[in-house]
Design brief:
globular, mainly alpha, 2 strands, two-stranded antiparallel ribbon
Length: 152
């Protein structure tokens, strides 16, 4: 089954997994600490909230992004480990665990309201044209990827 952040059961699952994190949660891969990961996830959710605008990518990368999104949707794949990300979304500074956890939960609620109001953008800089269902699927996959990174 394809999970989506727009499904209340899947949304609550993500909230429950976030609440399992602690300051001592350690990553199975990657360089981020748990607070940095939550800040990164909050930044990524701010893209469909239209608060962070991603730079335009060249047509080759855009084509690769569109194909990657389609492959994830067709095969219900996860996001590969250590994938490159937009510079704007990289968190390489110290973050307060409690602040970032509360902020991520707040941004998730704002995302939920925005999606229920059908106020999500029609495009993503890398993944191309996006419908509401695409946002729900991709945002779930991104959060799931990073929560698995931290064993929850």
């Amino acid at each position: 089954m394809k999970k989506s952040l727009h499904n209340p059961v899947h949304f609550d699952e993500i909230l429950g997994r976030i609440n399992q994190l602690s300051e001592n949660s350690s990553a199975k891969w990657g360089k981020m600490e748990v607070g940095q990961m939550m800040k990164h996830c909050g930044f990524v959710l701010q893209v469909p909230l239209k608060r962070i605008e991603l730079p335009t990518v060249n047509p080759l990368f855009s084509a690769i992004g569109i194909i990657a999104r389609m492959e994830m949707q067709i095969f219900n794949n996860g996001i590969p480990r250590n994938m490159p990300t937009f510079r704007k979304l990289i968190i390489n500074f110290e973050c307060n665990f409690n602040e970032e956890k509360q902020n991520l939960l707040k941004i998730l609620d704002e995302y939920k309201i925005s999606s229920q109001s059908d106020n999500l953008p029609g495009r993503h800089a890398l993944f191309g044209r996006m419908k509401k269902k695409d946002w729900g699927f991709m945002e779930y996959k991104h959060l799931d990827h990073h929560l698995k990174q931290f064993n929850v």
